[in-house]
Specification:
alpha+beta, Muramoyl-pentapeptide Carboxypeptidase, domain 2, 4-stranded mixed β-sheet, 3-stranded mixed β-sheet, 10 helices, 11 strands, binds zinc ion
Length: 363
C-alpha cells in the first residue's frame, strides 16, 4: 500500500519540522527511520482500536489518551505526548489507580505509554510500540496537583540504595508491594517489568499467595519506574503474543541469582565478545506490519474525542494548557532519572505508610 500524495506532503512537512531534508523521493521515505514518522504524529489514527505487530515492532490504531489528571493519577512529561494506549490498557491503568489507592499507594504517576499511533519512539524504549505497555513511576503521587512545568522537570527517585543493586529498606513501603501486587494480578497484564533488586525484595518479603510473583519479571533499569505489559487485546489479529512466563515464581530457580552473581555483579568481569555487537539497524516503515502504513495515513480525531472517558466523570483538577506537540521538544526533553528537584521534595506532608518488613522466608 502506498501513502497517498496529500498524506505524503504532510509527512514531508513533519520531517521538515524535525530536521530531515525536505526534498525526499518516495523510496527515501521508505528508508526514513519509522520513529520519525510515528514520532511526528500528534494525534491517533481514527480507526477501530487494534494493536499491530509486536511490542518492539508494531503500531497502534484507535489509540486513546489517558486524561492528564484522574482522581488517583497524574500523567507526567506531558510534552512527550506519550499518554496514548489501547483503550483496554488505559482502563487497566485506571483500575490499578483505584485498587492501589485503597491499599496505601497515594496514586499513580503515569510515565510513558505510547505515541498516538504507537510505533518506534523518537527517544528511549524499544517496546511501547503497540499501546500495550505503560511505565508507572516508583514514587506515589504527591497530595497536590503538579503544574505542567513540574511534570516536565522533577525527577523520579530510585528505589535502590545508593550505589547498590538492592532495594533501600528505608524507602520501601507496603504501598510499593501492593501497587505491584495489583498490577500483576490484573488478569490481562502478562508481565510487570522491574529491576532485579525489586524482584528480590518481593521474593524475600511476600508471604501467603506468591503465585503473582511469576508475572514480576527482572530486567535492566526499571528502578525509577515499573512497567506493565498487557497481552494482545481482542480485535487485534495482527498482534503477536509474547512467550508464556510459565507458572513458577522465578524466586528460587536460579534465574534471579544470575542477575546478582553475573549480570549486575560489579566484581565479575564479563568476557569481551570476540566480535563487537552489531549496532541495531533503525526500524523503517516496511519493517513494521503492513497495517501500520494505514495507521500512519489515517485521519485523526480531535484530542477531545480521543481522550479516554474516566469512570468518575465528575472529577475535576486544575486545568493544564498543553502546548502544541513538537517533536524537537521531545528530542530535548528530560528523562525521568535526570537529577533535579526530586518528586519527594514536592510531596508536602505526604508520609508514606511505614511497615515492618516481614522477615525473609526460610530457604
Ligand atoms: Zn519500561
Amino acid at each position: 500500500m502506498m501513502l497517498n500524495a496529500a498524506r505524503l506532503s504532510k509527512k514531508l512537512r513533519t520531517l521538515v519540522l524535525i530536521g530531515v531534508a525536505a526534498i525526499m523521493p518516495l523510496d527515501a521515505l521508505a528508508q526514513t527511520p519509522a520513529k520519525r514518522l510515528f514520532g511526528g504524529e500528534p494525534l491517533p489514527a481514527r480507526l477501530k482500536p487494534a494493536a499491530h505487530g509486536f511490542y518492539t515492532k508494531g503500531c497502534l490504531a484507535g489509540g486513546v489518551a489517558i486524561p492528564v489528571d484522574g482522581p488517583h493519577w497524574q500523567a507526567m512529561r506531558l510534552s512527550r505526548n506519550r499518554r496514548w494506549g489501547h483503550p483496554d490498557l488505559i482502563k487497566i491503568i485506571e483500575d490499578l489507580s483505584y485498587k492501589a489507592k485503597k491499599d496505601g499507594w497515594n496514586g499513580l504517576l503515569v510515565g510513558d505509554i505510547s505515541q498516538p499511533r504507537g510505533g518506534p519512539m523518537l527517544t528511549g524504549h524499544r517496546s511501547h510500540q503497540m499501546g500495550l505497555d505503560a511505565d508507572i513511576w516508583f514514587n506515589p503521587m504527591p497530595d497536590r496537583r503538579m503544574t505542567y512545568k513540574e511534570r516536565e522537570n522533577i525527577s523520579a527517585v530510585s528505589v535502590l540504595k545508593k550505589g547498590s543493586i538492592y532495594v533501600d529498606q528505608a524507602r520501601w513501603t507496603r504501598g510499593h508491594t501492593m501497587v505491584l501486587y495489583h498490577a500483576a494480578t490484573s488478569p490481562r497484564v502478562e508481565r510487570v517489568l522491574v529491576h532485579p533488586g525489586v524482584k528480590k525484595q518481593l521474593c524475600d518479603t511476600v508471604r501467603g499467595n506468591r503465585a503473582w510473583l511469576n508475572k514480576i519479571r527482572p530486567t535492566w533499569g526499571h528502578h525509577y519506574h515499573f512497567h506493565i505489559r498487557m497481552g494482545c487485546p481482542p480485535g487485534s489479529p495482527g498482534c503477536k503474543k509474547q512467550n508464556s512466563t510459565g507458572n513458577k515464581t522465578g524466586c528460587d530457580d536460579g534465574s534471579l541469582d544470575w542477575w546478582f552473581d553475573v549480570e549486575l555483579n560489579p566484581n565479575k568481569k564479563k568476557p569481551k565478545p570476540k566480535t563487537p555487537p552489531k549496532k541495531r539497524r533503525e526500524l523503517v516503515l516496511r519493517d513494521l506490519p503492513q497495517a501500520c502504513q494505514a495507521v500512519l495515513s489515517a485521519n485523526a480525531p480531535s484530542l477531545e474525542a480521543a481522550t479516554y472517558e474516566p469512570i468518575n466523570t465528575a472529577f475535576k483538577a486544575p486545568s493544564i494548557n498543553l502546548p502544541a506537540y513538537s517533536a524537537s521538544r521531545v528530542l530535548k526533553g528530560k528523562s525521568i532519572e535526570k537529577a533535579g528537584a526530586a518528586i519527594t521534595s514536592i510531596a508536602g506532608n505526604l508520609v508514606p505508610e511505614r511497615v515492618t518488613i516481614p522477615t525473609p522466608r526460610p530457604r
